[in-house]
Inverse folding.
């Protein structure tokens, strides 16, 4: 009898939950469509163009010089890094296939695999020619933007790399462009993956319903923020001058750490706004949406206010308060997005499902 | 080490051990020794992480505050001591008395090591083994702790792989079985494709006395992204291991493997529909008390599957965010992140009770 009563309560609870969700659920299908059409697809397309420009700039320079350096290459590299920052939070779908994500952005790298594997690349290639194709068979660390950064800036261990810098930079840049172009193509209208997101169902191998598809897309926002907070800011900026580790920063050799950081947060903010999440959250919990938008704005303004180079600013006692505030805002954004915003969208993720082990 | 002191202080400040009767939801009429009890971890509605003992209806028999999220549990053969391991990459293990709830030890990770979330006691209860990461040496180790002397760390040996996760003792009493996930989980060093040889997941059978490798099995080369994370051992020494697929999400590789000392690894799949529902992700596995079946949970798919001991698929049942599982009289006890406790057997899944807490990944049955 007791079992019967609890079973009845279980069914009742399940019914109540699904009914209330059905009544109030946002337009999940529309949300997925907007995130893809207004944010993911155009940002990948733009990144693919910037990566193509980078490949052209490197090969153009190498036509007339022995080193892949100079202002055009620098500009193109900065453009590629900024474009990557706008899609860096998207850790699902085509970019996760064939190790593309890590092959594009192998970071953090506290054990310096990038330098070590660049030094060992000639031996690893053996008889194979040095080109974009053969690079795909090598360590992800030598394929990525940080590897190219070392070669085009001549920084770090670049001097110890036995391979000639121009052919190496050309191969890396061409492979990076290939990977980004493949990713962008896999998100194009009519391509397989966006269709899987848009048409969930019992036969769909990835998404059973629109809620699951939205969860995937929305999760990129919270995990992207978490990556910024826990992996990007904390280990590098630290919680004091003494614990700051500016040498661990991404793109420090090219001096692009700060632009990359700003662009990464701008990318997350744009994803929240353009992707349709802001509007959907505002409809059900306007105060949550306001807080998220305000915090993104404060975060951007605070980063703008930080003066001087990145490595100098994190150990400058006069600027620690700003860095502290940036970290606090990033942490609060994680909490708001995981908490209030998820709940507003009816997406509160499973304790075990989202973050299992 | 600062963190571990903080961990200890937090445990002390929180009054680590509280009488069950003051806990919300506790039933003072429940005699812990008279009902099946399970060690598990959870998050409170207020967001605090706790470990403790619960009855099969989820009533609290013991509650302990944890400094951070817990993961696996281990008990000695008499269930008088229960160890709770920090979730990876964690830096604490707490051991409490299974009867009185008294804190027996607060173990901090050794320098250069972090815990991976699981461990087990030696067959005679004198040693505690924990899966750990030597993150400088990039290798998995099994830390050895003297359970007769305040859980002092007395040594370690290789896990014979990368990313060791769950470890169980073999019924022969001399062998440890460890699932090496194959993926280095140092949060700062994603390592896909950096070293294919090192990435190989495996199940290693290790001599409990000196860490010698007795036997190891691995998935075939084309399934080297099948991260073998959780396992359980049957009374006859057969091992069931369950996996998480880190490869192309459109692939549907088998997620359940069977092996034993000296035997190869046999991978099995559920029928198409159930296999798809598992979402390429298994969170936990447990063998029934009689060893004739085992249950596998897939939290991402919200499904628990039931299998015969030889790997034949029997049934699947749905429960959103299900993960923790262990044997109970008449089947298996399951818990979910949404606070449900349910019983699973051939007849399907029957809900037992719902609580406000979010039950975490694992469950350990302590008594009958």
């Amino acid at each position: 009898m007791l079992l019967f009563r609890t079973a009845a309560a279980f069914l009742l609870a399940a019914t109540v939950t699904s009914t209330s969700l059905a009544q109030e659920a946002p337009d999940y299908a529309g949300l997925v469509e907007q995130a893809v059409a207004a944010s993911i697809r155009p940002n990948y397309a733009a990144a693919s163009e910037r990566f193509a420009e980078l490949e052209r700039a490197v090969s153009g320079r190498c036509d007339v010089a022995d080193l892949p350096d100079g202002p055009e290459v620098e500009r193109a590299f900065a453009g590629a890094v900024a474009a990557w920052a706008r899609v860096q939070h998207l850790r699902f779908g085509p970019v996760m296939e064939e190790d593309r994500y890590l092959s594009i952005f192998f970071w953090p790298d506290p054990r310096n695999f990038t330098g070590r594997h660049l030094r060992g690349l000639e031996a690893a290639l053996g008889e194979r020619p040095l080109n974009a194709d053969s690079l795909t068979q090598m360590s992800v660390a030598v394929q990525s933007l940080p590897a190219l950064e070392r070669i085009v800036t001549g920084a770090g261990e670049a001097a110890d790399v036995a391979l000639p810098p121009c052919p190496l930079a050309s191969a890396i840049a061409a492979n990076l462009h290939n990977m980004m172009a493949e990713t962008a193509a896999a998100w194009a209208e009519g391509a397989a993956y966006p269709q899987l997101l848009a048409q969930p169902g019992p036969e769909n191998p990835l998404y059973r319903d629109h809620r699951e598809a939205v969860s995937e897309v929305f999760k990129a926002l919270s995990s992207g923020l978490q990556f910024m907070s826990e992996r990007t800011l904390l280990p590098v900026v630290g919680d004091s001058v003494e614990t700051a580790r500016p040498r661990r920063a991404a793109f420090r050799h090219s001096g692009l750490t700060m632009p990359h950081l700003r662009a990464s947060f701008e990318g997350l903010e744009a994803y929240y706004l353009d992707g349709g999440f802001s509007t959907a959250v505002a409809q059900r919990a306007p105060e949550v949406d306001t807080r998220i938008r305000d915090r993104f704005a404060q975060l951007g303004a605070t980063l703008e206010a930080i003066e001087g180079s990145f490595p100098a600013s994190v150990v400058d006692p006069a600027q620690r308060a700003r860095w502290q505030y940036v970290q606090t805002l990033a942490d609060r954004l994680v909490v708001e997005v995981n908490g209030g915003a998820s709940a507003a969208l009816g997406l509160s993720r499973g304790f075990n499902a989202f973050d299992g082990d | 080490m600062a963190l571990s002191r903080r961990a200890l202080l937090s445990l002390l400040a929180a009054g680590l051990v509280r009488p069950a009767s003051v806990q919300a939801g506790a039933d003072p009429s429940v005699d812990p020794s008279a009902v099946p009890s399970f060690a598990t971890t959870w998050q409170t509605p207020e967001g605090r992480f706790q470990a403790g003992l619960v009855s099969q209806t989820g009533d609290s028999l013991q509650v302990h505050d944890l400094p951070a999220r817990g993961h696996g549990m281990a008990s000695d053969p008499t269930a008088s001591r229960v160890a709770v391991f920090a979730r990876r990459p964690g830096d604490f293990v707490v051991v409490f008395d299974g009867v009185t709830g008294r804190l027996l030890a607060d173990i901090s990770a050794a320098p250069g090591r972090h815990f991976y979330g699981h461990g087990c006691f030696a067959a005679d209860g004198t040693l505690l083994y924990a899966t750990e990461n030597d993150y400088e040496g990039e290798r998995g180790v099994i830390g050895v702790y003297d359970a007769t002397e305040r859980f002092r760390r007395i040594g370690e040996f290789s896990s014979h792989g990368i990313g060791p996760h769950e470890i169980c003792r073999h019924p022969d009493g001399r062998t440890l079985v460890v699932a090496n996930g194959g993926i280095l989980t140092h949060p700062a060093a994603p390592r896909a494709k950096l070293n294919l040889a090192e990435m190989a997941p495996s199940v290693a059978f290790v001599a409990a006395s000196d860490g010698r490798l007795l036997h190891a099995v691995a998935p075939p080369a084309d399934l080297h992204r099948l991260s073998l994370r959780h396992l359980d051992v049957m009374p006859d020494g057969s091992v069931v291991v369950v996996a998480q697929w880190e490869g192309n999400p459109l692939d549907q590789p088998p997620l359940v493997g069977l092996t034993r000392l000296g035997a190869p690894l046999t991978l099995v799949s559920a029928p198409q529909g159930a296999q798809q529902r598992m979402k390429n992700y298994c969170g936990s596995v447990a063998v029934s008390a009689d060893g004739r079946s085992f249950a596998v949970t897939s939290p991402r798919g919200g499904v628990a599957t039931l299998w015969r001991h030889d790997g034949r698929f029997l049934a699947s049942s749905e429960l959103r965010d299900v993960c923790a599982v262990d044997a109970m009289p008449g089947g298996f006890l399951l818990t979910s992140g949404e606070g449900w406790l349910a019983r699973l057997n051939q007849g399907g899944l029957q809900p037992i009770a719902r609580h406000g807490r979010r039950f975490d990944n694992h469950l350990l049955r302590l008594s009958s």
